[in-house]
Amino acid sequence: MTSTHVPPQSRGGTEVTGQVRDEADVPVPGAAVTLVDSTGQQIARGTTGGDGGYRLPAPGRGVYVLIASAPAYRPEAATVTIGEAAAGLDLVMTGATGLGGVVRAGSTGVPVMDAIVTLTDFRGEVIGSGMSGRGGEYSFGALPAGAYTIAVNAPGYRPTAVAVTMSDAAVRQDVDLADAAVIRGSVNVRDLPRPWPRITVSLLDESGTVVRSTHAGEDGRYAFHDLEPGTYTVVATSYAPVRQAARVGNGRTRLDVHLA
């Protein structure tokens, strides 16, 4: 608790006025503000407005305690000595909870910059999003207690989601991203007559089921991104189908396909 003496101001009604702000100097609207006397008896109670301002009546001269509370913030209290006129007192509230951590590549532990980090509540509503910094760091400010989900995605990595439970303390949650497997290559179309026919490139899993399908570009190039590790078969169809097997681990695999 902090102790503040407020000298008498201009003659007028005896009251306590001021503003409630957070550590970033941003007003805290909807905060409950209570004035009690030295015995703990409630004298007045109110709620801050959109600008964080409040105004409470006081019975007269004396020493009082001003208490402010709001969701996601730690309660704050300060003593105020009132003379014969109105007194002013501002309160600064600190966040009760916070969430932050580092996004890293799971295979190397290297921080991942510019990853998209999205935070949703227990209903699935998005309540915040941002990008990881140079060191892979991300953070969200004060959060009410409850269950949340962090979803992270970045180019070259598989998206991931992590469940987090917030209480009344700051929580650190690092996120490791798995490398996304990629098959890319080109279909040899140099010997085909122009205009080149449309070439369909299909990706089959180990059971022979088509899991992806695309069309080769005008230069014959194709790519399949964000694949689970495993064994796949690439099929290029234009004239006679051509099949070539590819073994995929973590990282990128190149496989060129030549049409007969």
UniProtKB/TrEMBL annotation:
State if Secreted is listed as a keyword. yes
Q: Name the keywords, alphabetized.
A: Secreted, Signal
- Keyword rRNA processing recorded: no
Task: Give any single GO term for biological process.
Answer: carbohydrate metabolic process
Per its record, how is this protein called by name?
A: Putative surface anchored protein
Looking up InterPro entries in the UniProt record yields: CarboxyPept-like_regulatory (IPR008969), Ig-like_fold (IPR013783)
Q: Which family does it belong to?
A: Belongs to the serine-aspartate repeat-containing protein (SDr) family.
Residue segments, region Disordered: 1-24
- PANTHER family this protein is in? COLOSSIN-B-RELATED
What domain of life? Bacteria
UniProt-listed Pfam families: CarboxypepD_reg
